[in-house]
Amino acid sequence: MGEKTQCCGRKWCVSDPCGIVCAVITWLLIMYSQFVVFLVLIHSYEEHWFHTGINFVLFELLTALALISHVKTMLTDPGSVPKGNATEEHIERLQAAEEFKVIYKCQKCCSIKPDRAHHCSVCDRCIRRMDHHCPWVNNCVGEANQKYFVLFTMYIALLSFHALYWGIWQFVLCVGKEWHSCSNLGPPGTTLMLIFLMFEAILFAIFTSVMFGTQLSAICSDETAIETLKRISEHALMPGLVVERFDKDGLAAEYLHGLREHKNDKQNYICQVMKQAGMLCHNQRWWSAVKVTNVSGTNVYVVLRAPRATGVEAMVFAVDLHQREATAMVMAYAAFARQQIYWARDIFFVFVDGGAPGMDAWLSQYHLIRHSALHADPLPEMGGVIIGAVAMKGGPDWHMLVPLRAMYTQAFVAVEGLHSVMGKYGVQAITVAVPPLNTYPLRKSTRLLEAIARALNNVLERFHQSYFLYILASPDNFVSIAYFMPIIGGILAPLLIFAYRDWTNLTEIFVPRSLFVMHAIGLLTWCLSSTYFTDLTSNPRADVMYLGISMLIPWGLLLPP
């Protein structure tokens, strides 16, 4: 990833899979607009030749300019620093030329970093005046190609606004003529294509207009996006920038053995161990207020008071009490965190009994909110505003299953896990799936937890929205949206194709067999999602089988009825 190759006669091309996919999608969307123009919009030329001719010329001109600027942005060196020039001889020559000059060396690409240069992990190079890495152009936006990127966003914004105007005009024309001679397609096909074109135009008009305005603001202020972020939160410490020091994996193994021995009395065992570590520990009973659903449980929560704060803010680490490995890991980290003195926020370690309802009961009492469906004991120990929460859970030994399960539960299940109930209390949360101990070292998993905790401990840090564009497939691997979106497209594509085929045959008086098949698939998907995919202790091999069936069934709808 990030390797340079010869492409179209140019010496710069980033071979990043995510960027290549996004660049291809950009071209396909522009080609779709051309398809609509020649199939639908230009059909009104005979009756409105002047209006259609002007719009056609303007549309084609903007399309050509947008494509050219996109290629120029993608294949232009953004201002890369020569790789491997940080040799001792070169450094000595620079120091001899300017005696008191501070020379910065990039350890990742072994180059001398000029002022205002930043290292891009995707391009694997230091870029002069790097603004950001844009996957839609598969390149960094830097000193040498920023002007092309500004032109690209401007042309796409103008093209989107023009497509929106022309699409609405054509739609009104077709309705006025009762869909006679306004398109090469029938009314359903014309309507579908115009609606999708207008939706695409609105989406990209908003996105590119914001990007164009952001770039103009950066040019006027002579400040890149990275420099702006540093100015806003220069003390922010993200997980990848801290040095993790957790070394109590032996203690975690001891706690795991104790949880297995006290499987019928986990709450008292956890409190006993945490009190010995010098922390406050309490039990909280909760039960359902509805007699029909007879559910109840006993939560355990441990409080670590920050030595450098007044308790105004807090962070929460929650784990299902019945997930022994994840529980032992959180217990070991709590004991380790107790020995540190750098905490600026209180930490609540919540061991939840009963899944999402148990988490809901604890949060309702923490925020002093009366729950209509749950009763719970009050909390003896309280804290400040929860600025972030992390839900730990046991993960399967199938890395690709983690994002697939996440997509299924997000699409079809109201409550995905412990983090699902936190949103209604205004708490931003993420879930971290911990692989089994026999496949991944416990120390490395716990150090990821330590990195997140230390990041949230910073007084300026919050969970950034970019967390929700990625899936943490493993403790050291974030999966970009560009990787799991094609999977979603593969699931939805046959459904959309079949729906369009049935829509064009609305005049036929019969109920297609596919209608019952689609209802059956919907019922099957709902049953699997609401029962199986929310079971955190399910068999990974069975998960793969069910997911494979669920992904293949929609393509069967394309068979003739």
From TrEMBL:
EC number from the UniProt entry: 2.3.1.225
Compartments, as annotated in UniProt: Membrane
Catalytic activity of the protein: L-cysteinyl-[protein] + hexadecanoyl-CoA = S-hexadecanoyl-L-cysteinyl-[protein] + CoA
Stretches that traverse the bilayer: 20-42, 48-68, 148-172, 192-212, 478-498, 510-532
PANTHER family for this protein: GLYCOSYLPHOSPHATIDYLINOSITOL ANCHOR ATTACHMENT 1 PROTEIN
Domain notes: The DHHC domain is required for palmitoyltransferase activity.
Protein's UniProt name: Palmitoyltransferase
Organism annotation: Trichostrongylus colubriformis
